[in-house]
Amino acid sequence: MKISLLTKYIVSYLIVVVSALAVLNTVGAHRVFSGIINDRTKALEKEAGVIADSYLEDYYSGNKPLRDVYKELLVVDAYSDARIMIVSNDGEVLSDTRGYATAIKENRMKLPESLLEKDSVDDFTMDRFIKEPVIAVIHPIDLNFSLHGYIVLMTEREKAAASGNYYMDTLNICFLLIAFVFLAVISFLYIISIVPLRESIKMAKEYARGNFKYQPPRHHRRRNDEFADLAATIDYMGNDIGRMEDYQRKFLSNVSHDFRSPLTSIKGFANAMIDGTIPPEMHEKYLNTIVYETERLTGLTSSILELGKFDSHAAMLELIDFDINKVIKHTAETFEGTCRPRGIYFNLTFESEVEIVHADKSKIERVIYNLADNAVKFSHNDSTIDISTVEKGNKVLVSVKDHGVGIASENIKKIWERFYKTDSSRGRDRKGSGLGLSIVKETITAHGEEINVVSTENAGTEFIFTLAKGGSG
């Protein structure tokens, strides 16, 4: 069974609060009551010593009658809230500020010897005379090195307990206030953390269902913290997945279109030759067409596989030092048969005769070939294509520039898209797959380098990319 964080928070909070209250009202209460009784006992011991020294010396020396001492002790009783007894050596109570000490010896209260042997007693009771538990302090009366009796002070234990109850009530109220504040803090933390987290989870679930148009609540989008970053990341991811789905649909549509055309031609010509629609003397012509369309399919398949390697990070680079100028010269020579009938010539300009770069030679050869092939396609007859290399810091800048039809400004950002073809490209280059520039972009990016394009309609296009200089350059 799934248990939400809110439920866990509430249960944890209640366990902590109940446990704390239980400890406070058991261990804490015991320590409070023990402390109060201990303090009260010490106060009575101190008071007993003062009484013995200040009030009873005249009585035992015969200078003051017991009645006068009794009156004085009544005042002390009222002030200290303690019952004061004067006790003889054998435990008889001679004077009691809260009782009656009769002159008839047989009727006098007599305290047990076990009590007089102690300094203090907690929770003491005595039938008929002391019914409620008291705290008793026993102080011997020593005059001239002789024991004359005892001074006994008693206070009701219930009063001390009442003081403890007051303190415990105060502590409990304070604890509950703190618990309430803590609950408010937890609620606030829940609102600012768990609530936006749940919103982010909901966003992720909606995107997982394919609902890429889902928008989180406005207040969630207005946050300015880590949860806002999380929501923005999920939103970006969802939009990116949505774009990927659109791209996949477009990709499949383009692949189907580009594969269907040559396959239709191959199938049509093959069936025509089989059923005799095309006479035997025309077979060679149409077989050449079939071979041409087959090569077109092979090139398209190779391009798709190469881009797939970049997507899966399987396109491992074999970095070596080589002369980029030599690669450019060789690539330009391969276009001689295509360019000569159209009067197109390559103008190669190198800052240095040898320009060593550190890159994957085979992949950079493909980049140069694709850019040169693109330049040839869109160049006017009787024009030049400029290819140059120049050093700049620890980089080598390679430029491929044509003077052809150029690219419209609104299409500049689209040229790196897979299967993208301008309208002029579709009319001019039936064999093109629309993957050449995508491969160029992916290859340069895999090298950690940059490629830029500058183009003006009816004036030409220039591609400029960077490569790292080689160690011997």
Tertiary shape: rod-shaped
Structural class: alpha+beta
Span between termini: 67 Å
What's the level 1 CATH class of the largest domain? Alpha Beta
Examine the coordinates and then state which fold CATH places here, giving the name of the CATH topology of the largest domain: Beta-Lactamase
Instruction: Tell me the major beta sheet.
Output: 7 strands, mixed
Indicate the low-confidence ranges by residue numbers: 423-432
Helix content: 40-55%
Q: How many domains make up the 3D coordinates?
A: 3
Fold and architecture overview:
There is one protein chain. α7 packs antiparallel against α8. Helices cover 54% and strands 19% of the residues. The strands form two sheets. Strands 6, 7, 8, 9, 10, 11 and 12 form a seven-stranded mixed beta sheet that branches. Strands 2-1-5-4-3 form a five-stranded antiparallel beta sheet. β9 and β10 form a beta hairpin. The protein folds into three domains: 160 residues, Beta-Lactamase (2-Layer Sandwich), CATH 3.30.450.20; 86 residues, Orthogonal Bundle (Helix Hairpins); 151 residues, Histidine kinase-like ATPase, C-terminal domain (Heat Shock Protein 90), CATH 3.30.565. About 2% of the residues have low confidence. The protein is α+β, with helices and mostly antiparallel strands and 473 residues long. The chain starts with a helix and ends with a strand.
